[in-house]
Amino acid sequence: MVLLGAPGAGKGTQAFRICEKLNVPHISTGDIFRKNIKELTPIGVIAKGYIDKGELVPDSVTEEIVRLRLAEPDCKNGYLLDGFPRTVAQAVALERFSKVDVVIDIDVPTEKLLRRMTGRRVCEKCGQSYHVDFLNGKTTCSECGGSLIHRADDVEETVNERLRVYAEKTMPLVQFYQDKGLLKRVNGDLPTDEVFAEILKVLE
Ligand code: AP5
Ligand code: MG
Ligand code: ZN
Questions:
Q1: Residue 80 above 90 pLDDT?
Q2: Residue 102: what are its φ and ψ, rounded to 5°?
């Protein structure tokens, strides 16, 4: 299963719930890159240069990471991809090493996305997303107790570039998956629980 959607649309937020419910691994290329950046691995060093500017990490690097991850035993009975594929080339590559059953596009009006991202706080340990509007001053994760941090690419200038890159490189995937009859659209401009309920309806 693939989750599509603009930066800040709520892919990570919904992925946590979907994976808990369906008991499949949550594979977020953004989370994998951030872990590598934190651990100063060679991939992290490459990725940081792109992510900090709001650009995409090159397809070759990203595809290889996903190919290796999907070959791990926990993906045998399914998986949820969050943030991959993000270009038509990545989607074509994915077809070579796995078969996608369903693609869910979480749809949120562009003008709402900036505020979602600049106000986001992320758990350093488990990756769960929060928003300052609902945290009431809390600084730790209610799932695991980890510290909440502000992502380096969640500043306004970088967010604007991410949205531009999304429109140019990732939006064409909506048509790509629609043509294959795999695309399901969900209104992401609703409270989190209602978005999740819509996703479950689609999955039925
Ligand atoms: P990635 O980490 O995937 O970032 P992204 O796609 O920009 O998406 P986000 O994680 O920002 O948003 P989200 O949709 O997960 O929203 P969230 O649930 O957190 O990628 C980062 C970078 O890595 C990329 O820019 C690129 O450089 C690189 N990269 C990653 N994958 C790549 C690939 N395949 N190829 C090349 N490069 C790649 O929610 C956002 C906020 O909104 C939170 O504050 C949340 O609490 C709030 N919120 C969520 N749902 C709701 C709701 N229903 N109502 C109100 N608020 C809500
Ligand atoms: Mg995310
Ligand atoms: Zn946590």
A1: yes
A2: -150, 145
Domain range for residue 102?
Answer: 2-24+77-197
For residue 170, give the CATH number of its domain.
3.40.50.300
Ligand 1: nearest atom to the Cα of 58: 36
Q: Do the domain assignments include residue 12?
A: yes
If you search the block for the tokens 């926990």, which residue do you land on?
74
- Active-site position among 35, 67, 151, 184: 151
131, 121 in Cβ contact below 8 A? yes
Between the CA of 183 and the centroid of ligand 3 the distance, in Å, is 31
Identify the CA nearest to 194 among candidates 1, 2, 13.
13
Is the pLDDT score of 38 beyond 90? Answer: yes
| AA letter at 89 | A
What atom in ligand 1 is closest to the CA of residue 120? 44
CA pair distance 182, 189, nearest whole angstrom: 22
Total tally of structural domains belonging to the chain: 1
pLDDT of residue 84: 98
What is the pTM assigned to this prediction? Answer: 0.95
The fraction of the chain above a pLDDT of 70, given in percent, is 100
